[in-house]
Structure prediction request, 323 residues.
Amino acid sequence: MERDYSVVIVTHNSAPDIAKALQHLYSQTLKPKTTVIVDSGSKDNTIPIVKTLQYTNLKVIELQNNVGFASALNIGIENTDSPWILSLNPDTRMEILYSENILNALSYYRYDRIASGTGRLVRLEQTNILDSCGIYINPTWRHFDRGSNKVISHSYIQPGFVFGATGAASFYNREALEDVQLEKSKFDPLFHSYREDAEIAFRLQQRGWKTVYIPYAVCYHRRQVLPEKRSKLSKHINYHSLKNRYLLRLYHQTFTNLILTLPIILPREIGIVLYLIFKERNSLKAYRWLWNNRKLIIERRKEIKSKKLISFNKWFFRRILPT
Prediction:
């Protein structure tokens, strides 16, 4: 398997982090072929800081407006040509062997259809706390990071197949992204920001692609968006998070699955609507957005269904599968 990879970093007001992220990236034992920074309408000093740094094969794309993480990531990917793409958040710090460990590990799975590889992410400011060991989903159609908020232990030291990879620091196979793209977009621009990594995991699973968790590849990540912090997050974040929660299900949930899970989902849905009415009225416009874009959503759903090869239902009850 080729170890040639490029890196895409999407920035938006990332001045406090970008220099450190690049320092750790260019300290990797296995260097990237190209690094593309796509700045999505920053209003701080992100770009001036990057321009003072002297790194080889570093390209900067400046966007005037905040187009969202998904669109900016797509732009970055289109400006690379490596078989592997590392999606890297600016608030990450990779250990020096992170890239080499993941790509070396993925070479052992050359007979599998590998879409992505992710390492063990640890909280940047609490280095004894796990951040993500891959993504899992449950029967209520919620997706979570494996191990999130748990003290580092022997529970997450085994490699294996997981449902999906978090977009903070994961490698993606270009061939897999092209196989599942929607209207030439790898990550769906309708998601703008948040949950786009879970959504593409559904598409990849349905096409028979796999995601590998490699525990000895370690990266530190400052997790800024957590469910328990919702009341402290910006209106912008909460709006897109709610919108994308429904968008993901409208794309992928079957009618049979809806009927089977309705007794579990319905009480939570009622609770969410009541919460929005009394405490987060700004996010109610997400329902209007979904209605106004219903035709496009239906078209996307039909396209996804036409490409589906296998079911992802096993992942509602499994968090990791042995390799």
In short: The chain has one domain: 1-323. The CA atoms of residues 91 and 214 lie 20 Å apart. The chain has a mean pLDDT of 94.
